[in-house]
Amino acid sequence: MVGNCLSQLIDAIRRISTSNVHLLGFSLGSHVAAFASNYASKKVKRITGLDPALPGFATAANENKLDSSDADFVDVIHTNAFMQGTPLQSGHIDFFVNGGIIQPGCMQEGNVLACSHHRAPIYYGESINSVPGFWGWSCSSFWEYLIGRCWKSGNQTIMGEHTDPNMRGIFLVITNSQAEYAMGPYSNTIRNFIKMNNDKLQQIAQILLKDVKIISIK
User: Where is the Lipase domain positioned along the sequence (predicted)?
Assistant: First the structure.
């Protein structure tokens, strides 16, 4: 219903062509943006999905959730995959930030998952005026990254407001643990990142197991 209403607003603004419309959606809003684009008389130019929601959409068909067919260009930022956000490729280009699951600096927060989930819009907001920018290197798939096979790739592109609409695929991004988060183009940071992530994955596993126990108790 929300997507339908938003599509009517888009069509009602006659002076603005859908070819100039860029929709941003956070969590559930990512899927709402997809619905709005499909309900409109013509699909919008761009949709940015900020950690698209996983709950309720894990097994949904592509037409019922955000995917690359929903706009001329769909870019997605993943920050809490497998938890509140989807781990699946959902756009023409998908950025998995700091491993895409738990964000640096969030382990000290009261709600690790919420902190990580909400980093997606924070990163995007910073990207608008960031001088160094959020840069990522290409990876054949998120699963290849998880088994440590994506550290050698040299292709880079920028994430956020200024993402190249001609780029395609999956990219891995590193950030600082606090603002300013953007680190600019990578050089020798990849090896350090992979080493750091090996330690962090153990912490993530503990969180996953804890959540599984909570779910089983409920």
Answer: 2-162
Distance spanning both ends of the chain, measured CA to CA: 31
Beta-bridged to residue 93, according to DSSP, are: 75, 169
Per-residue pLDDT of the chain (218 residues), as tens digits, is 555 666 566 666 545 666 788 999 999 999 999 998 888 888 899 999 999 999 989 888 888 999 999 999 999 999 999 999 999 999 999 999 998 999 999 988 889 999 999 999 999 999 999 999 999 999 888 888 877 777 655 689 999 999 999 999 999 999 999 999 999 988 755 555 555 554 555 555 555 555 544 433 33
**DSSP sequence for 7-38:** HHHHHH-TTS-GGG-EEEEETHHHHHHHHHHH
CATH assignment, 2-217: 3.40.50.1820
Q: Give which of 20, 58, 55, 18 is closest to 38, Cα–Cα.
A: 18
Tokens of 6: 């938003």
Distance, CA of 71 to CA of 78 (rounded, Å): 18
- The Cα–Cα gap between 97 and 207 comes to 18
Block residue for tokens 């999905």 = 49
